Amino acid sequence: MKTLQLSVSCIVIALVVGVLVGVMQTSKQMVIFSIARGYAELFRGLPIVITLFMVFFILPEVGIRVNSYISAMLALSLWSSANISVAVRGAIQSIPPTQVEASLSLGLSQLQTMRYVILPQAFRRMLPSIIGLLSNLIQSTSLSILIGNVDFLKSAQLIIERVEILQGAAIAFQMYTVVLVVYFVICYPLSLLSRRMERRLQ
């Protein structure tokens, strides 16, 4: 349950922040562009494990107390939103400039042009890659075990240890098989959907 909750929380945050940062990366104002580009490059370049440890250990040092679940949610959201922002930026930049010029000539503002003209078209182009990223995000929630979050994988390990201690039985193979099947059932359809959408868009 916690794994599903963590995945959904990260997906929502990552989509909102990723789209915002992606749009900011197309800004002609150098300050906005630089901040957004720096954010994307920083968290895309860091391994997820490093980001997890940074959030978990550094936030308490600056007086922000968070538990392992919140730390995992923040770290995974930072990584995935940075990757989503790059997909959003690429999709926006793939729209012909004449679309923007035509919209502005019709009296639409920059914000209206982005909202009603550019983003709806860009959304179709970015969707396959974003679905693939979300699949990777769900898989990466298992890394939260490294900072003590009791997710699906951690629960499986606790069951294995409890059974081995109380009953002396070895059930590691069975439990890890169940974990594998669950992640496969969740992520494989997303991968198929992503490939199918890429083919349709081509």
Please outline the helices and strands:
Elements: H1 2-24, H2 30-45, H3 48-61, H4 68-93, H5 97-105, H6 110-140, H7 152-167, H8 172-201
What features would you describe in this structure?
- With 202 residues, the chain is an all-alpha fold.
- It has a single domain (2-201), classed as MetI-like fold (Orthogonal Bundle), CATH 1.10.3720.
- The chain is 82% helix and 0% strand.
- The protein is built from 8 helices and no strands.
- It has helices spanning 2-24, 30-45, 48-61, 68-93, 97-105, 110-140, 152-167, 172-201.
- α1 (2-24) packs parallel to α4 (68-93).
- The protein is elongated.
- The mean pLDDT is 83.
Short note summarizing the structure:
The protein is mostly helical.
Q: How far is the N terminus from the C terminus?
A: 37 Å
| Contiguous uncertain segments of 5+ residues | none
Q: How do the SSEs run, as a string of H and E?
A: HHHHHHHH
Work out the helicity level.
Answer: over 70%
What is the count of DSSP helices, taking H or I runs of 4+ residues? Answer: 8
Characterize the largest beta sheet: strand count, sense, and whether it forms a barrel. Answer: none
Strand content: under 5%
Give the C-alpha Rg: 20 Å
Strand tally: 0
CATH structural fold name: MetI-like fold
Structural class: mainly alpha
List keywords for this structure.
202 residues, mainly alpha, MetI-like fold, 82% helix
